[in-house]
Task: inverse folding
């Protein structure tokens, strides 16, 4: 069964606007971690933001914020004031247990000038 | 601070050949991982290690082997390469403290088996 689901294969956003990338997850654990990574065309994996399952507040890192809705098992990434350099693949991931980190299929974001 | 370093960056193998993908990290992380990323897909865990001398299988271990003789190094061995192993391979490491530590990735190795 798919642990991490990203339902948007591709998204477009106008420069300077905000965009939300969806992520839902499936787990029976009470304690887990959620991550978002950015993969530009150069191929490297860049860590963006982390949310722990027990964190009561939504995580924020600069222009990135994570809209965490635990009951709905969703962890959407919000990018504010999009920039051309935000064009990339974005992956949602979940860690259950010590080492098992599962990734979604990704969303390709294109920022239009 | 180099972080996680993978070599080579690119490699073409013939069917049946073998090779070792090298990975080293200088952050003193206990946990290290190997992932593969097929075109248009997310990452799948091949093998992982929680410390020197300790390794375990991930989601897709068939056709691969690993070893962890030091904290810094975690090589991935491909025996009898097959076209299905054409992929981009990522090595990663994470902090030893806490289950929710962020994984830091190497630049990736693009492998083509022909």
Result:
């Amino acid at each position: 069964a798919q642990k991490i689901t990203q339902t948007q294969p591709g998204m477009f956003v106008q420069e300077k606007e905000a965009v939300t990338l969806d992520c839902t997850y499936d787990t029976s654990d009470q304690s887990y971690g959620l991550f978002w990574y950015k993969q530009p065309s150069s191929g490297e994996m860049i860590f963006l933001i982390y949310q722990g399952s027990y964190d009561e507040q939504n995580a924020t890192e600069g222009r990135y914020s994570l809209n965490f809705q635990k009951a709905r098992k969703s962890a959407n990434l919000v990018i504010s004031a999009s920039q051309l350099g935000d064009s990339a693949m974005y992956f949602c991931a979940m860690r259950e247990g010590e080492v098992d980190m599962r990734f979604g299929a990704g969303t390709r974001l294109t920022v239009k000038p | 601070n180099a972080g996680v370093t993978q070599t080579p960056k690119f490699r073409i193998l013939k069917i049946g050949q073998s090779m070792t993908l090298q990975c080293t990290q200088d952050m003193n992380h206990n946990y290290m991982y190997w992932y593969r990323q097929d075109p248009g897909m997310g990452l799948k865990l091949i093998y992982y290690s929680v410390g020197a001398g300790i390794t375990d299988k991930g989601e897709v271990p068939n056709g691969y082997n690993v070893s962890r003789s030091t904290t810094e190094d975690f090589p991935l061995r491909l025996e009898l390469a097959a076209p299905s192993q054409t992929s981009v391979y990522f090595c990663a490491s994470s902090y030893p403290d806490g289950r929710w530590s962020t994984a830091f990735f190497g630049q990736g190795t693009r492998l083509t088996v022909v």
